[in-house]
Amino acid sequence: MPISFFEHIVMRADAMPPGKRADIPEVPGDMLVECFTVQAAAFPMSGLAFSDAIPTAVILGNPNGMATFRSGGREQVVVHAWLSAQYLENVRIQLDDPGDELLAIRFNPLYFNDISNIPARLLRNGLVWSLQDILGGNSGIMLTDIARQCDVPGKLDVLSHLLTRNARHHAANHLLQEAIQLIKINKGNVQIEQLAISLNVSYKWLERNFLQLTGVSPKEFARQQRFLHTYFDILNQPEKDLLEIALNNAFYDQNHLSKEFKKFTGYSPAWFRKHHGLSQNERYWSGKVKKAPESQ
Q: Using one digit for the tens of pLDDT, what is the confidence trace for 104-138?
């Protein structure tokens, strides 16, 4: 997903300029976290891609629309519907001919393996995956049917049938669910060893179950959460210097923040702050991202 989306998905900003949340369709258990629709005109056509390890799928309004993911020398192109890998560093996304409206779906990671043909632990081997490959069978026909529906209830009804058909039922891992929530509540500022102790499980158990169900380690998940909050602090709090933001987000110092920020974005926080001083309504939805100089 474009990272700008997470201000409204994860950060829970009051407004959601690009779209609106939709009622979660009827599916087995707690398979879905949330769904929302987005007008393509408000969706950034290019920019930084990010994943917070919560499986998120996007279905374009145009069945022939494409999304291109690039990182270093790697490039992957998917048509119509995709799910990005759970862990992305310095990845760019570009959309072509997406149609009028997009549908985004957030899956509960505890149940994702119950509907996916590809285990979560293997998804990080790519930048992005075709949703048809994830769901298998004749899902391509049903995904096209979603795009052809004229209204949101119609789209969600087809989605409900698709996911219900794929569902395999397993008991939820409630300890892992608690671990995920604690890391999110603390914005990634947790010691994983202490987290395991508080849950009365071993570190190896926590790491193994995290990797199996989310595709990332608990330390990686904590890093993702901390980065997201830091990213939006830098974007939304221009009056604060970078050292203050670094310390507020549990970095050792500004240099520690800069190294971590550059891993995820490809540029320094100072460069980012200088070149992303857009207005509240323009910020990042425009997709106007200048290329950072290599020295940054």
A: 889 999 888 888 889 999 998 899 999 999 988 77
189 and 157 assigned to the same domain: no
Range of the domain at 212: 174-275
Q: What pLDDT is stored for residue 250 in this prediction?
A: 92
Residue 281 in any domain: the answer is no
- pLDDT digits 0-9 by tens, 64-88: 999 999 999 999 999 999 999 999 9
Q: Which two tokens stand for residue 132?
A: 């048809």
- CA–CA separation, 99 and 76 (whole Å): 20
Order the strands of the 19-22 sheet from edge to edge.
19-22, 32-39, 101-107, 56-59, 81-84, 128-130
State both tokens at 119: 């285990």
Q: Identify the band that residue 45 occupies on the pLDDT scale cut at 50, 70 and 90.
A: confident
Domain count, the chain: 2
Of 133, 166, 199, at which residue does a domain stop? 166
Do residues 151 and 247 both lie within one domain? no
Pairing of strands 81-84, 128-130: antiparallel
Amino acid at 120: A
pTM (two decimals): 0.87
**C-alpha–C-alpha distance, residues 131 and 144, integer Å:** 11
- Say which residues have a Cβ less than 8 Å from residue 101's Cβ, sequence separation at least 6: 37, 38, 39, 40, 61
Distance from C-alpha of 102 to C-alpha of 59, rounded to nearest angstrom: 6
Q: What is the rounded average pLDDT of the residues 237-252? A: 94
One domain for residues 152 and 181: no
Indicate whether 284 belongs to any domain.
no
Residue 96 near residue 65 (C-beta atoms within 8 A): yes
Per the CB < 8 A criterion, the answer to whether 53 and 220 are in contact is yes
Interval 151-207: pLDDT, tens: 878 888 888 888 887 777 666 788 999 999 999 999 999 999 999 999 999 999 999
